[in-house]
Design goal:
about 200 residues, mainly alpha, about 80% helix, about 0% strand
Length: about 200
């Protein structure tokens, strides 16, 4: 759970923008707390960790849903990996307990964000000067197109700015943790995949 925090604190990109008045660093901080308490709840199934993971997930989603999507992807990947690992090793685990504690961490923030987004769209649609910025019209602006995601030019730009975004510390940490254990290396890959 310390890997994303180290990446965040070692990133020149995020260190710069956290000193501005933009919402990105706040959404990331809430998202990191959500991941932290998700990992704690995944290990212990204590209700207080589940509640804190949901709370910070909701705060991150309400602050900036596109940023929370990164953490949601990461949480989902780790959840699926742990689920199949426990089945493969026939671990003595209550699947009902697993789903009752972990699934709300994924579902509740999404549900709250969808309700809020629909309400915001309703308000914008009432204003003739703002009706064009409802979510439906901003999808390509927020997430890009499939053509952009598959374009070589896009990926060259992403990887050419890797040191700016992650910093040298980030590359060192990811390189180091990938050798610690198979499970940790998969978590590192999941963290990278969440940002793609």
């Amino acid at each position: 759970s310390y890997v994303p925090v180290i990446l965040f604190l070692g990133s020149p990109f995020y260190l710069f923008w956290s000193r501005t008045f933009m919402i990105e660093s706040t959404a990331i901080a809430f998202g990191l707390f959500s991941v932290l308490f998700f990992i704690k709840s995944n290990n212990s199934y204590k209700h207080k960790y589940v509640a804190l993971a949901i709370l910070f997930g909701v705060l991150s989603a309400l602050t900036k849903i596109t940023t929370f999507g990164i953490f949601l992807t990461f949480i989902s990947i780790i959840f699926i990996m742990n689920y199949f690992e426990s089945r493969r090793h026939a671990l003595n685990i209550s699947y009902r307990k697993l789903f009752v504690t972990i699934v709300p961490i994924i579902v509740v923030p999404l549900l709250v964000a969808m309700i809020w987004n629909n309400y915001a769209d309703f308000l914008k649609s009432q204003n003739p000067l703002a009706s064009f910025i409802v979510s439906e019209n901003l999808f390509k602006w927020n997430f890009g197109t499939i053509e952009m995601k598959l374009a070589l030019k896009t990926w060259l730009a992403v990887f050419s700015r890797g040191e700016l975004i992650m910093g040298s510390t980030g590359f060192i940490v990811l390189g180091f943790v990938s050798f610690i254990s198979k499970k940790v290396s998969w978590i590192s890959l999941a963290a990278i995949a969440s940002f793609l």
